[in-house]
């Protein structure tokens, strides 16, 4: 007579009926079920940890009179299986083996962790798993012989504030990080959380996160998998100190979030990190593809500036950092000024977003306004006045642009309305202006009506970006 054993809804092989008597002599669970086998030839085990593989190890243990060779590749399958089957003698043997896990080699730890991944839903909160994970992570810091740097594709990148000792220790770990790429996202998240609880240095944790994300991303077969990977990465990074990772790595992560059209909460977490590091940006980093008809995303830049200014209240503020951001925003204003779909309110918001001390000169702002009004010629006098109002005339270089200010017909109504003649037309400007008028008068035909009817200044043709025909965009837009 045979007895069919059903493990996790999957039929195993048909074992002889006397297997039930052998298992009953070791397993309290089978012994209890045997009393109910009146006329039945099928024995079911639902939620068996490790499935048929673990069940086969248990039966082999019982056939060998309670003896089996325990190795790192089967320890967790045996331990979870015997706990499920209630086999006291086997539980004792596996617990004794687990007490010596401190003596395992790194390769044996990796083999054991692969078994933990199979059993993760069962072992997630198991005390022996917690102890095993703690010992494995401790092994990351132990000195050992490791391959040369050429054997690993991993390259650590950190901010300038990262101690050199931390960088060298992370380089020692890089080949071990490669060995852990097999981790599924749930177990990887558990490993990172354990590293945080064990007070690992945040730069080291960060390097592992980015290395895992870059290596795993290309192995994902669907967009949903990539989104889950990126969202988990962002959530883990939000648990770390913002100075632990470089701005370049954050920009790469943000570019990935844009390409995947990820949820807004995850992107906002990255923007919070990026805004605090805005002074480390290059102009290309801000040139992110805009929404609808806009060439570039102005709202994103305004949000980053807001986060950067928040650092002033929370973590202190350094004027030289603000000046770097001021220079960056000025360049951005020049780039977006030629966008015919950019509203005046957004352009003005860019010019007024930073405090006065962030700019020592407003020459670039003047240039941006000039370009903006050349492209947007339909504004009335009041609208032009509001746009010119973001300019601080005390910070405009009269040596380089004084005569240009006088010639600019877009600027003259605002100049007259706000009575800034005494401010702008000091001796140098008057000298240049009269010289300009004199030269213009000589070149005009006889009978011209007055000196003030000088030829209208014709600006050079500016480079206008067509919103639907952008030849090249920075890497964030890819």
From TrEMBL:
Coiled coil spans: none
Highest taxon above the source species: Eukaryota
Keyword Mitochondrion listed: no
PANTHER family: OS12G0117600 PROTEIN (PTHR32370)
Similarity-based family: Belongs to the NPH3 family.
Species name: Lactuca sativa (Garden lettuce)
PROSITE patterns: NPH3
Protein's name according to its UniProt entry: NPH3 domain-containing protein
Ranges where the record places region Disordered: 146-166
Biased composition regions of type Low complexity, renumbered to the chain: 146-165
Keywords, sorted A to Z: Ubl conjugation pathway
Domain NPH3 span(s) in chain numbering: 174-425
